Amino acid sequence: MADFSDYTSPVAAHTEDADKFLITAIRSGDQRAWHQLIERYQGRLLAFARARLRAPGEAEDALQETFLGFVSSLKHFDESRSLETYLFAILRYKIQEALTKKQRHADQAVGFDADEDGPPTAEASVEETPSQVLAAREGTKRQADVIATILRRLIEELRDRGKLEDLQVVELLFYVGLRNKEAADRLGRDEKSIAGVKFRALGRLREFLEELEAEDRGLLDESISSDATIAKVWRQRRLSCLKRSTIGSYLLGVLEEPWSSYTAFHLDEVKCLMCKANAEDLSAESEQLAGGELSDRMFQSSVGFLSRWSGTDSSS
Ligand SMILES: [Zn+2]
User: Fold this and answer.
1) Residue 78 pLDDT > 80, yes or no?
2) 279 CA distance to ligand 1 centroid (A)?
3) How far apart, in whole angstroms, are the C-alpha atoms of residue 84 and residue 230?
4) In this model, does residue 242 exceed pLDDT 80?
5) Range with lowest mean pLDDT among 27-31, 206-210, 260-264, 304-308
6) Domains located in the chain, CATH noted
7) What is the pTM of this model?
């Protein structure tokens, strides 16, 4: 069996050690750590924001509000989660807010979708509707945790066995929401083999479900059957997203197969906006375009909140 140990975690599921270290320092009011966190994440976040907000300055505003939002909610940050995913979640919210505001200001906005001039992406098809958002609020975080757990088990199993082609099928069906025929066309496979992969994947999910405590199983009765919920958990937890270092290797052309093909798939077929933002940021970085000026501005506008929060003096 192939050894994928170098890439055992292409999934950005947990906060990396370096991030944990930074967060501990930031929580104690360390301004340099805060500056470092901004420098580390601003590029990919800005690239993500620019894909959604086109007017000059809008993306930077959303970025600034994201860092402010993070600093003021620092005590709620759960370190068992990925910091990057958390920052992207705040940014998504800020972008949504900006788009809503813009829509409100638009004259005669009947039927106008603030987002419709954006490029059509696979992500857009799993964006929540208001009723889904409400349903999610009614549901518990634990429910999402349980769904994420069994999906992650399936994804890891396919990865560990080197079945990345099957993972692509599962990703297109469960995350992007394609039908068997559509997935077959996209991947150049026949519909029957797609149906086979789906059948086996559902069987495994059912088995994982059986292994859960009865209490957790009870949480899933209805929601697990909802494709929208699965897609949402998949996106929010970024279950199949790639590590930044994996994307970096891919861009340099040194990522080995089958990961190279899988990465191309995740970026170009799934069109994952968060991973694309990382890729764009990495390309910009290699062209030395990433600016210290931007991070200084982000730092200046948010550091006061850090001090206020941690109760230390910012005048030093
Ligand atoms: Zn991704």
Assistant:
1) yes
2) 10
3) 21
4) yes
5) 304-308
6) 15-119+290-316 (1.10.1740.10)
7) 0.69
Residues by chain with Cβ below 5 Å of ion ligand 1: 241, 272, 275
CA of 234 to the centre of ligand 1 (A): 10
Q: For the chain, give the mean pLDDT.
A: 80
Question: 30 C-alpha vs ligand 1 centroid, how far in Å?
Answer: 31
Alpha helix stretches (DSSP H) within the chain? 17-27, 31-52, 58-72, 83-105, 130-138, 141-160, 164-170, 180-187, 191-211, 214-220, 227-236, 244-252, 259-264, 273-286, 292-310
Q: How far is the CA of 275 from the centre of ligand 1 (A)?
A: 4
Secondary structure class of 129 (helix, strand, coil) = coil
In this predicted structure, what is the pLDDT of residue 111?
41
- pLDDT tens by residue, 127-163: 444 444 445 554 567 778 888 889 999 999 999 999 9
Instruction: Find all residues with CB under 8 Å of 194, minimum gap 6, and list them.
Output: 169, 173, 180, 183, 184, 187
**Ligand 1 centroid vs 258 CA: distance in angstroms?**
17
Nearest to 236 by CA among 165, 169, 150, 145: 145
Q: Ligand 1 centre from 239 Cα, in Å? A: 8
Is-contact 164 158, C-beta < 8 A? yes
Six-digit token string for 185 = 């066309």
Distance, CA of 206 to CA of 163 (rounded, Å): 19
**Using CB atoms within 10 A of its CB, is residue 313 exposed (0-12), middle (13-18) or buried (19+)?**
exposed
Cα of 46 to ligand 1 centre, how many Å? 16
DSSP 311: T
- Residue 10's pLDDT is what? 57
Banded pLDDT at 6 (limits 50, 70, 90): very low
Ligand 1 center to residue 257 CA distance, Å?
18
* Dist. CA 220–CA 123, nearest whole Å: 24
